[in-house]
From TrEMBL:
Residues 98-298 form the Tyr recombinase domain. This is Integrase/recombinase y4rB. Belongs to the 'phage' integrase family. SUPFAM superfamilies: DNA breaking-rejoining enzymes. InterPro entries: DNA_brk_join_enz, Integrase-like_cat_sf, Integrase_catalytic, Integrase_recombinase_N, Tyrosine_recombinase_XerCD. One of its GO terms (biological process) is DNA integration. GO terms for molecular function: DNA binding. Pfam families: Phage_integrase. Keywords: DNA integration, DNA recombination, DNA-binding.
Amino acid sequence: MKLADAVARYVEHKQSMGMRFHTERRTLKSFCQWLGETDLAQIEPDPVRAFLAGTGPVTRFWQRKHEVLAGFYRFAVARGYVTNSPLPRTVPKPSQHFVPYIFSLAELKRLLDATESCEHSRGAMTAATCRTLLLLLYGTGLRISEALSLTLADVDLDRAFLVVRESKFYKTRLLPIGPDLQGILSQYLARRPGDRAADSRFIVSRTGTAVSRAAAEGTFCRLRQHANVLRHDDARYQPRLHDIRHTFAVHRLVSWYRAGADVQRLLPHLATYLGHVNIAATQRYLTLTPELLGEASERFERYAMGGHHD
């Protein structure tokens, strides 16, 4: 059996069980492209290891690719397509734990100021669209795919909430938004190009068409360089558009500490707002920054010295 045929059967099997399987399908498609037109039974360990290795140090991405291929080969072996798996038995540890970048308020302002550069480029997004997308992500903590998937019907500006439909975990949720973001989205809507059909995307390109994730991330990369927002540690990646979601979570926690709120009680609400299935997923977003650590330490010091545990 050809590799591509076995992959197609595996993807169809997973999706028939109700799984989206989009990311895994892309990984398997890359695997097919890497090996070309070949029989599944003829695949040797060396090209598989080369596919997993990619370039650069071992990262979490290596492990994700390994997990996808491991699931595929379990499926193939169970159905007799092959007798064994060519995957390496030892899974190396990543060279370093990936730490998301948390933007400072000054950096966010520089990014917003840099959106004016979109008017002088050949990019798909106008300055108003770039600015609105950044503020939407920072004001709600949406995943970039969720923000770009919003339709006009999903943005209820009269009642100040967004409808996020069937996101990562097949759940639809309502997100209330504050008056500042409500005003920003209203201003964008008034100038937004394109048609006004209810199922049209809210965030659109210069020509009124949907904005792809690749286009949004490419635009952000140029904005980041223009605004001189860079990592100066040894991290493999520069600040990403998705890091705005992490920044939203950390900044929200800092503001709760400063307001004297009961953070432990509010964490489940933050998890629900972010669309996480549990608090543990939210806690992974809460990268310790000097600002957050300082607020938490001050809260603990007051508690340890006999003050109120608020």
